Amino acid sequence: MKFLRNVTLALLAALPFAARSQAPALTTFSVGSTTVTASALATNLDHVWELLWGPDNFLWMTERSGRISRVDPATGQVLPLLTLPDVTPVGESGLLGMVLDPDFAATPYVYVVYNYTEAGSLKEKLVRLTYSATANTLTAPLVLLGDIPATTTHSGSRLLILPDRTLLMTTGDAQLLPEAQSLASLNGKILRLNLDGTVPADNPTPGSLVYTLGHRNPQGLVRLPDGRLYSSEHGPNNDDEINKIEAGRNYGWPSVEGNCTTPSELAFCAANNVREPLTTWTPTIAPAGLTYYDHPAIPGWRGSLLLATLKNQQLVQLPLSPTGDDITARTEFVTNAFGRLRAICVAPSGAVYLGTSNGSTDRIIALENRSFVATGTRAASDFSFSLFPNPARRQATVQLPQPNALLTVRDLLGRAVLTRRATGTTATLDLSSLRPGAYSLQVQTALGSATRQLVVE
Questions:
Q1: Which domains does the chain show, CATH number per domain?
Q2: Which stretches make up the Glucose/Sorbosone dehydrogenase domain (predicted)?
């Protein structure tokens, strides 16, 4: 255990990574008073489907043809790990979503979902792979969930691991429209599994993997630091959606398209616990990757969902209301600049990475505020805070240099797992929801920002 803790702390210490040499600007645009520069990090890719920021401070990427790679954010070098031999990349099918185990230092598992062919039929499965840092390989495939009917369209699928170590997986309706409303089918759902593939005991329907139902083709999924979940979903010729995901809710498809408006939709919604979307688009925009932005590098994006779109070839900012139940505006960026956009992720530096989905000339695009300097690099005499006890168990106390500080606890993947606003100069963190392990605590005030390691026992 002491060895694993040391490895974990070493990974945390590596979080402040060196900035990559500045690549030539492809374009610039304004977000409020901030100038954002877009540049190409990696090129000659093929239908980038997933981008994640890994605990090794590399981007992890899937391409629809079946390749999984690590990408060096400093140089753009693509380091292939594995090309899955049984992926079927036909139409929109192929290698789709990916997520890394939250305890990656101890259990270096990589979860992927992809389409494959069995007995002449296209299907979908969730597979766990094991990563070797020394060999730079992925091996030991273990099927956690398979035999899901699929077609060359409407397969989903994004993956997300929750703090309780359960996994969410989105599935499309595979053009089998009635299946989206059937609890006996895994199509048209958001599924929730334990990391060994079993059914969590507290799922909405006992013995069932179904977490939510009534989905058409959800291709974006994100969790906010406070636990709220959101998904993006393709509509037919109308009503693309952003949904707030709540356990056990029905999202209407195919009986409801968008909001509950017609008499038949209103009756169905009343009878089936339907959760209406936060916003819709008609004509459709083909929404794909979805993330949340709350970093000082680009202040105008803070508190917003960021959505990558395929058909409209845009990055869309969707600010959330304080309760998270409303989207207060829609602002588009980089329209038609890079073609179809599928994947999106945010680095700990505040840079946003986009993966394009045009063909064999695809790229990873970096969006950066090149004038931003992380104040966490300032001298301790300029800014500091105290944290005790550390290691901590259920609670930790933070002594702050000034009130109104934002406190963010991040896991090894750089994801915010706990946030709170401190009104005074002393704050108590409730750590009871966090698993034992190493984290980082970032404190942001008007004086600056600083980060310390936090160990939860």
A1: 21-368 (2.120.10.30), 375-456 (2.60.40.3080)
A2: 45-360
Distance of CA 388 to the CA centre of its chain: 31
Averaged pLDDT for residues 396-415: 84
pLDDT digits (tens, 9 = 90+) for 18-44: 344 689 999 999 999 999 999 999 999
341-346 β-sheet, strand order: 25-31, 34-45, 362-368, 352-356, 341-346
CA distance 144 to 156: 17
Distance, CA of 249 to CA of 229 (rounded, Å): 13
Angle among Cα 162, 437, 166 to the nearest 5 degrees reads 20
pLDDT band at 377 (very low <50, low <70, confident <90, very high): very low
The CA-based angle 137-171-290, given to 5 degrees, is 75
The span from the first CA to the last CA of the chain, in angstroms, equals 11
pTM: 0.83
311-319 long-range contacts, CB within 8 A, separation 24+: 311/284, 311/285, 311/286, 311/340, 312/285, 312/286, 313/337, 313/338, 313/339, 313/340, 313/341, 314/285, 314/341, 315/341, 315/344, 315/352, 315/354, 315/367, 316/285, 316/287, 317/31, 318/242, 318/279
Q: Which of 299, 303, 317, 300 is nearest to 226 (CA)?
A: 303
3-state class (DSSP) for residue 62 = strand
3-state SS class at 265: helix
Task: Give the torsion sign (CA, 156, 158, 159, 160).
Answer: negative
Give the Cβ contact number of residue 381 at 10 Å: 6
| Average pLDDT of the chain to the nearest whole number | 91
